[in-house]
Each structure stands twice: as C-alpha cells, then as structure tokens.
Design brief:
About 30% of the residues lie in helices and about 20% in strands. The strands form six sheets. The chain has an eight-stranded mixed β-sheet with strand order 12-11-8-13-16-17-19-20, with helices on both faces. A five-stranded parallel β-sheet has the order 2-1-3-4-5, sandwiched between helices. A two-stranded antiparallel sheet has the order 6-7. The two termini are about 40 Å apart. The chain folds into two domains: about 170 residues, Rossmann fold (3-Layer(aba) Sandwich), CATH 3.40.50; about 190 residues, 3-Layer(aba) Sandwich (Rossmann fold), CATH 3.40.50.10300. By secondary structure, the protein is α/β, with parallel strands linked by helices. The longest helix is centred in the last third of the chain and has 22 residues. It contains 13 helices and 21 strands.
C-alpha cells in the first residue's frame, strides 16, 4: 500500500473535511466515540467504518447517533442504488483516520491484505492516512510491529501515539491510545499537506507572560492565548510546520508539532531565539509584559502588622519582536490598544520593523472568543475585518501572510 497525495491537496481546516474514521477491535474502541464527537463538532463530515472486532467492544448505533450517518461494517455494503461501496468511500475521503488501530490492522495494511471494508478503503484511497495505535506494550515493541510501522511510515502514513501509561492489562507501558486532542491535531496536519504554506516554518507565540514577584505571585495580563492557538491551527491548515511557544495558562492540545512552554518575557525571548534559525514567519500573538519586578523574592512576601502598601520597582522587559533581525523573515506583530487603535498600531509597524500588524481594541478582544481586527501592511491601506470568532480571524491573518510571502517570492 503506497501513500499518494491527498484527494483535495491543501484544503483548509477540519470544517467541511470528509473523514473516514476506521475503528478496530481493541478495548480502546470506546474512546473512538469521544474522537468522533470532537470531529463532528469541528464541522467534519464523518463516516465511520467498524471492523468485526470493534463491534465486540462498541455498537454501530453509538456512532450513528454521533455522526447522523450510516456506519459501515461489511465490505459488501453500499453497493446499491448507483453507489460503489468502498470505492466511493475511498475516492470521496479527504482523510482516512484509523483509531484505535490494532497490531493486526497495522500488519494487514503494511502487507496490503484486504479482507474487510476498512482494509479495502485503505488500499483504494488517494487520501492521506493517519493511524492511532492502541495495544499492549510488548505487541507495540515486537519486531514485526516495528517493521510494519516503519513500512507504513515510509509510504507516507502518519502515526499519532501511542502514549505511555496504564494499559488495559493493568501494566504500565507504551501502547495507550493517544489523547483525542493529539489525534485531531495529527488529522489537521495531514489535511493541510500541500497547502500554500507547505515547506514554510511558522513560529507562533500565544498567551500572556507571567513576571514573578515571589514564588506564589506574579504580574500578568488577561490574555487567554486563543488567538495564538487559532493562528497556529490556521497555519497548520495551510500546510506550515509550526513551532508554538505558549505561556503556562494556555492549552495547546489541538496543535500538532513542536510546542514549548514558557513563563516570563525573558524565557519567551530565549524560546523565540532558539526557533529563529528555521523560521520563515514569526507571529508574536502573545501578550508580553512590558515591565517586570526588578527583584524577585526567594520567599513569599509577608504583610507586616499595620502595613498598608507594598512598593515594587519595575524595569523594562525586552521588546522581543523589535529585536529580531533575520534576513527573509516575515515578522507579524499584534497591537491591542485602548484608543486610536489603527494609528498606534501603524506606528508600531514602523518602529518595530514589522511586515504586518494585527490591530484590535484591547478591552473587547483580550480573553474573548471573538475579535474585530484591522490588518495593516506596508503595501496597501489597512483592511478592517468584521467581528468574528478568533479562528475565522486567524484564517484571514494567514491569508495575508500567504499574500505577503508570495509578494516576497516575486521580488526575490
């Protein structure tokens, strides 16, 4: 079984994607219900195919209720009224996702055996394939399984997991089905193959930095990191390799790839510096504290009897994006302002040497699930975007990044 290009290369995002979810026979099959629900909520047109073994652990009715679609269980199903069964499912899929995948299923796929609906689809599809294995550790580490996995990887199949932890036998080891977020992230990355940012590396920062006062207190801000996460996801949807740098309050579970967790502005600067050599784009969506305490107490600061105030001397943090200099790097900044939003953002564009700045009203945007932004670049008038969920705004920002990179390529 070779792994060709996606049936619709470079499609953008999970919403509207046609995914076939193959569920095979293992105790982790019950977790596929949560995965199916997550995908459907993300807008995926999901069709579930179950092996005979899977039906020993969970019933098709569960998936029919979650997807509102027919569940396929036999290789001869779907051949009526002009439909062509596994051929139609294979040709219409944007992605084949197998979760959980047993050692037996992996072996059959590696050797091209076709004895059920799922293996027939796998052999016939031109879509990318993502496999999430689940089995006992000794089965996963057996030389036969190792060889089969390597064969599939050489053909372009992506593997999500397995993770280490407590297994169905009660033993501890590697073989647990990967978390739902990790599997969805792998699916997102596979769907983005061949997109307009394919071959590019995008570094995205997300969240709000925390500047310590003592071991239990810090100076921070209200940033949720939603825009940074949405931007990372949109870049993956466009085919980019993403390095995501997040602060501790941000959950990056739906982002595939390299994730670094930081706390303070100085840690963030170090992480950005480490990521720069491979970067084509730097998008600084994180809300970085402008100031930090000059001194950090080693012990919790105690209030003294009768004390009515505490004096903290603050010093400037480094302006990370302004200090970044790399030839060919596209720099994207964000400006959350409380007044004169566009004017202040345009001034920052020039002062920091940015290629693009995303301006928005701070009070309405920070911590919200929605945003109303203005995109300011050097080569055209500011573009105001209507208020929308942050993932929609992020997709428009990525479109603008693609436009600017295309202009750079044309000028090179």
């Amino acid at each position: 079984m070779s792994q060709p290009e996606a049936s619709s290369p470079g499609r953008r995002g999970l919403g509207g994607a046609r995914i076939v979810l193959g569920v095979t026979g293992g105790i982790a099959a019950y977790k596929a219900a949560e995965l199916a629900s997550t995908l459907v909520q993300a807008g995926v047109a999901l069709t579930v195919v179950m092996t005979a073994g899977a039906r020993q652990f969970i019933q098709p009715l569960t998936f029919e209720g979650l997807t509102h679609r027919r569940v396929y269980t036999g290789v001869f199903e779907g051949w009526n009224d002009g439909h062509t069964g596994h051929v139609e499912l294979a040709s219409g899929a944007d992605l084949l996702l197998i979760a959980p995948a047993t050692a037996n299923t992996i072996a059959r796929l590696a050797h091209g055996n076709v004895d059920d609906m799922l293996s027939a689809i796998a052999l016939a599809t031109a879509a990318p394939i993502v496999i999430a294995p689940a089995m006992e550790q000794h089965m996963w580490l057996h030389p036969a399984t190792v060889a089969n996995v390597e064969t599939l990887r050489e053909r372009g199949v992506t593997f999500a997991g397995p993770d280490a932890g407590r297994l169905a036998s009660g033993a501890m080891g590697q073989g647990r089905l990967a978390a739902t977020g990790e599997i969805v992230a792998a699916a997102r990355a596979a769907l983005g193959r061949g997109g307009p940012l394919a071959g590019r590396t995008v570094v995205v920062t997300a969240g709000g930095t925390q500047e310590p006062i003592d071991p239990v207190r810090f100076i921070g801000n209200r940033s949720s990191g939603r825009m940074g996460i949405a931007l990372a996801e949109a870049a993956i949807d466009a085919g980019a390799a993403v390095r995501l740098i997040v602060t501790r309050n941000v959950d990056p579970q739906l982002v595939s790839g390299d994730v670094v967790v930081v706390e303070s502005a100085r840690e963030l600067r170090e992480a950005v510096d480490d990521a720069l050599p491979a970067a084509d784009v730097l998008a600084m969506a994180a809300a970085v504290a402008d100031f930090r305490p000059e001194r950090v107490s080693d012990q919790k600061i105690k209030k003294q009897g009768g004390q009515e105030s505490l004096d903290l001397r603050l010093v400037r943090n480094p302006d990370i994006i302004a200090g970044v200099e790399k030839a060919g790097l596209l720099k994207v900044g964000f400006a959350a302002e409380t007044e004169h939003v566009v004017a202040h953002a345009a001034a920052k564009l020039e002062a920091k040497g940015l290629d693009l700045i995303v301006a928005n009203e701070a009070v309405a945007t920070i911590g919200s699930e929605r945003s109303q932004a203005t995109l300011i670049a050097r080569d055209r008038a500011p573009v105001s975007l209507p208020e929308a969920p942050k993932h929609v705004v992020a997709a428009r920002i990525v479109d603008e990044i693609v436009r600017l990179l295309t202009l750079e390529d044309a000028d090179a």
